[in-house]
What we know:
Number of helices of chain B: 21
Strand order of the largest sheet of chain B: 3-5-1-12-9-10-11
Strand content of chain A: 25-35%
Structural class of chain A: alpha+beta
Strand content of chain B: 15-25%
Oligomer: heterodimer
Largest sheet of chain B: 7 strands, mixed
Shape of chain B: globular
Radius of gyration of chain B: 28 Å
Structural class of chain B: alpha+beta
Shape of chain A: globular
Amino acid sequence: MIPSKFDYVKPASVADAVAALQQGGEDAKIIAGGQSLLPVLRLRLAAPSLLVDLAGIPELRGIREEGDRIVVGAMTSYYDVLKDESVQQHVTLLAQATETVADGQVRHRGTLGGALAHADPAGDLGAVALALDAEMVIAGASGTRTVPASEFFVDYFTTAIGEGEILTEIRFPKYTGWGSHYEKFNRTAQAWSMVAIAAAIRTEGGAIAEARVGLTNMGTTPIRATGVEQALVGQPATADAVRAAAERVTEGTAAPSDADAASDYREHLAKVLTGRAVLAAAG
Amino acid sequence: MTATAEPTVEFGKARPRKEDARLITGRTRFTDSITPQGTLHMHVVRSPLAHATITGIDKSAAEAAPGVIGVYTLADLGAEAVGLPHVWPLTPNEKAPQRPLLAGSTVHFAGEGVAVVLARTAAEARDAADLVEIDYEPLEPVLDMEAAIADDATVLHPELGTNVSDTWVFDSGSAGTGGSVDEAIAAAEADPDSVVIRRRFRQQRLIPAFMEPRSVVVDPTGEQILMYSATQVPHVLRTMTSVTLGVPEQKLRVIAPDVGGGFGGKLSVIPEEMLCVLLAQKLGKPVKWSETRSESMLAAHHGRDQIQDLTLTAKKDGTVTGLDVRLLADMGAYLELVGPGVPVLGAFMFNAIYKIPAYKFTCTTVLTTKTLTGAYRGAGRPEATFGIERVMDELAVELGRDPMELREQNWIKHEEFPFTTVAGLTYDSGNYEQATQQAMELFDYAGLRREQEERRRSGDPVQLGIGISTFTEMCGLAPSRVLGALSYGAGGWEAASIRMLATGKVEVVTGASAHGQGHETAFGQIVAEQLGVPFDDIEVLHGDTQVAPKGMDTYGSRSLVVGGIALVKASEKVIAKARKIAAHLLEASEDDIEFANGQFTVRGTDKGKAIQEIAFATFAAHDYPEGIEPSLDADAVYDPDNFSFPHGTHLAAIEIDTETGHVDLRKYVCVDDIGNVVNPLIAEGQVHGGLAQGISQALFEEANYDDQGTLVNGTFVDYTLPSAADLPSFDTRVVSTPSTTNPLGVKGVGEAGTIASTPAIVNGVIDALRHLGVTEVEMPCTSQRVWRAIQDARGVATQETPVDTHSPGAGLGSIDPNNPQGEVQ
């Protein structure tokens, strides 16, 4: 598997990376962990003229607490995300979903920022970022800007990251004390999600006080199941109540049809899995 | 005595494989690791269309690209008249299209080569391949077998006049091995005390997916043309290359170095091997080709792909009275080396372990615009086993009987062996009762049936199914006279040589060249036991026609039961020669010489010599009897009298989440009777791997084509293979009823798991859902198919599934044929 020819640079700072991207123009492409891009290059389905490798920029790696936020550097590997104690404690859903991504080798190479910027609707972490109202910090020639997850995912493989810009950080609010669960349905253990449901629930006295539900692979972008969230609030965390609320999960979705699952099956799965995810999250 | 005579117990010892260290650490060299100095690299430009006329080829841009030596079409190579070999014509009437090395004026399947680029590096060849401009005029693809044989079908090869390649019939009535099945069906239809079960099953198309993609290196710089190939069949390849290209056989040496799996997928002679030879001859330089995974999935031959129409008749008391089998078998665009023979091997296996008085098998081989089909682990026997084991379950349901009890009523009892079947084979030995009893105990059959009943009664969303497969197979291809009767182009013998070295060490040469099975270990154990020499003193040599000039290679679970016996025969000759020299040196009569544990002793005395001492004395040749040659070395060629017939009972406990359709294989038990076991560790490994592959057919794998004949899941992202995480820990056990057709009492084991497991799984899936009204789920039994079957049974209409559409769900949305530009933002 031999990719088309490309130039390659490995800048040492975000500023240098931005400069390289701008110089490279529209055919320049960022490579992070390479777990999505390399197969595409090797199959010659993409032929960028320049790859800008972010692996040499230490400031893009690592996780820190900043007040009521957990901040994850874009180049932090899945493995480092899911093993991080502050993530496990305050953004449990992120750790849970990250653990389901592919296999151990991929989780050591692939990065959270790479996954979000690639924006594959079958990828697991977009739904989590969306459900948890993460903020994306994007650097460009004119400085940095912050984009809420709700505005970040634009379309199939398309995000708010503009030409010459780099996703540098993902900022998650803390959900300390919430229950959460990532319910993934796939054909084999290491396959992409056919459908998956990200759920974070805060209960008070046996009733659901707050609910956040994100959907993987139910449209061209990750989708927030606001109908379900509204229907859950105030309900007891019982199977009947949760399943009734889960019926609303298909509102606003455009489930894809493929050989693994036609859209009606995906819609059915989404309802069943939403019920399971919320019940598991509500514990 | 100069050496201590410790008994050598090698046969039956669970030795770790001696090959593993070099294979697992990557120390060894596979074909792609071999690049002689000055090698040129070939890349094949393949047709993206299934069926098209080639209207123009513009090579100029590619020829001008950096590093390119040349771009060649079939005409450029002057190879229009060369046809790839097909050695298994079914009947004299077979319609066999000649398969060219590259498409001439018409392409017949997507992935067929149209031109080759030769360059100084593989990267330059790959880059230049994109610059070869080929104009196609699309023709109607021929994809569905039933449509292909209809009167108004587009004919793939107009010179043949039809897409039906051949029809092959076995009828026990006319063969004299049983009654007429037509009469049995007519009688059953007229008899109120009989039932007639008619079922159609589909054997989906599978991709062998061996770990090492195919690779070829041809070096013409010596006196012989030297070909390395990642092949299962170096000897067949040598002979076929000679026949195909006219290279004198003595001018050709073929080496199969360590080969990373094959599963039948490398039992072939491929265009790329012949193209490398032609280009190497033309340019006088080494030429190399290594395929990518995507190329392998598209162009290497596929397996299975049958439609099976079965009619089973039985008395209402459960006695089976007749079986009629009608197969349509998809050959793909041309006939592969052994392609049509694969489904026909099933002719001998549909009757399986049962006493069926009347039997007929009709196989129609069909040409379509798809990748060729050929051997794939089990080759004809998994398909047959699936058909009979599925329909036996259907009969049990029809009669309200326990499916195991019904099987036992009809199977051959252990005291009835040897048993000549309705298909004309003589099963030498077996004990179905023993294997079944052990399997049922290990499985807790009664307990699981109770749990199943409880889950049904309580309406548990997770339902339990129990799947049964009681299988046998014919293995050890094959008695040469049988192959002759089947019009196969060669014999089924195997060759072995033993060379006693001066220092008492031993070189063992086998014509059965392994590609991952562990022959070096198992064969070493056999010879160590026979000659009484330490295992570590033996080297097993294979896979190079200069070292092992004779051989029939490795497939059809033949290595041990044919190749292993050849080693025994050669060992016996070595011992016979050594005995004469030992008698001479010990000054005793040959009749008084005894041989055990590597020691020749004079009966009734303490005089003796070790075989190593005899070897050195023979090497020195200072003192040996008159009238014999000073050599202990021996060759043997063993042609088996019969197949061997492993059998076993496989049981699967399947849990189905009826809310999602998810199928979970909870427990899998198999008790296999594989006769005497040379190395239990290797045997168990073969069973585990075989099970994974057979289970994978039932639950995961299928090669899907769209309506234009494009393979739509030709990467490992979307061609679903399971990993260890998707399978349970198997409970395997071996029982041994020794084969009586060979001196070691051994049977084959390499294909058993694959042959047996597929119907066990599907029977289990259907058993879990039968009470809901589900009667059939096509393979692979994906969650979506199971969910739809449940909806259908409930009378809920669901939408059609597009088999040909990628979506973001494939993860690599960018390889969607609907998004060919690979838009990744």
